[in-house]
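Exercise 7.
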Amino acid sequence: MPTTPSDRLRARGIGLPPPPTPKGSYAPVVRAAGLAWVSGQIVVDGANVVSPGTVDREVPSDVARDLCRRAVLQALSALQHELGSLEAVRRIVRVGVFVAVSPGFHREHEVANGATDLLLEVFGEDGRASRTTVGVAGLPLNAPVEVELLVEAP
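Solution. The predicted structure, written as tokens, is:
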């Protein structure tokens, strides 16, 4: 049975995308006082946002849930690049999920499960974090979801 986060990803046939590059004046990951903050991740393919629009109107909730999962993979790629290895992550502390919603959509929590379910798969109980899920009117580049992480790391 796989015992490390990297082993668990490999066992599931999941590869990490290349580390994200900032599209503005910010750092992908900032470390301080034993914590690492990963900037918000939206899912892009080259220069284009994947499945742009609001959830429930242009983007089905199951697609948005999968995009949350993919955004977490980008965040893990940023962490691996910054820390040298995912094994340096001691635990996931907090997950922030922002969902661009159409009026009347109130299932943001179900969309956010795409992010937190993956973290549990990869880190086990050390992936069970506190979570904030917020429905918003819009996100950068018309992305339907954005995910940020706070992790304990040396």
